[in-house]
Predict the 3D structure of the following.
Amino acid sequence: MTALLSPRDILDQLVSFPTVSRDTNLPLIDWVEGYLTSHGISCGRQYSADGTKAGLYAHVGPDVTGGVVLSGHTDVVPVDGQPWTSDPFTVVEKDGKLYGRGTCDMKGFDALAIWALVEAQRLGVSRPLQIALSYDEEVGCEEVVPLIEQMTQHLPKASVVIVGEPSMMKTVTAHKGGRAFRVHVKGFEVHSSLIHTGVNAIMFGAKLIEWANQNNATAAAATPSDTAALFVPPWTSTHVGVIKGGTAGNITAKDCVFELDFRNVPDESNDEWEARLRAKVAEVEAEMQSIVPETSIELTQTFDLNGLAPEENGAAEALVRRLTGDNSENVVSYGTEAGHFQNASYSTVVCGPGDIAQAHQPDEFLSVAQLTAGQAFMRKLIDEVLS
Ligand SMILES: [Zn+2]
């Protein structure tokens, strides 16, 4: 007889694997796969390029389309330098709270999803339930893209995705997207007294940074769309957070490198903002090359996250509202994997246990009440939607 674990039992197991994003998550994936297979559920894996990490997907129920996907990430942020009062990789229950790294973000939801999958298998469902567990969410969300591709290749396509990031079980229908670049301005060094024959990478880079300032001013003055109006600020922001360049006060700088990012409202695409940046880069580069032809500006994308746009009559939103009874309008300022699922034409919302304020903190916790609320949600999903 195979053991039947409670969400709390599963959470204890998941937290015991220190799946910090920079390290392997394979021991956790092995454990989850072992548990699901022991209940007759077969799993697929999507490996990272170096083979040290894997995402996992599984399907329960009839071999038909139209099911529900429960999506979570398995990685957690580091605990280095944080003043924890208990071992971060052991769940400790105290005063109605479950302490441990990832309890809130988001192994609590992962545990509920694994529990629900086994329940769905045990009780039988007429509509499929699927699970998608990713890695590297905390370092960019991009690894969920190949996971989604493999799922759509190997499993019947589901219609609804619930991404269980901490939302206190509220229905979150939108968040901003983002894309970031390392901008390397490659100028030409001369003595600064001969500035007209040199190309100062810092001073040409400054034109792009001033363009970012102008974007913000223009966007802030414009009337926001209905979708944009959900956010604070209600516009796409352009930002430069790091800059390096130059070697001496009397030399035109040969190199200037800075990091520029957009946080776009979800009805404006990442691609459209990248195209605007590239047009401005081409303009500045042409000016540089008219002085010294071998100068250039190189862009390297360092981060990409699709926004989650509110859906008109979205199936995921309707489903989650029916199960939670929550009719409030919620958007969040953090990014999730939800935008990538939506981009792959799944109806998608974010809804999960716990408060994002506890995520990434020392003494991170998930309240027992939130875990219980999450379990009730899964119970209703199986009984009222899938059976
Ligand atoms: Zn998270």
Q: What stands out?
A: Residues 103-123 form the longest helix (21 residues). The chain has a mean pLDDT of 95. The pocket of zinc ion is lined by residues 73, 105-106, 137, 165 (CB under 6 Å). The chain has nine helices and 15 strands.
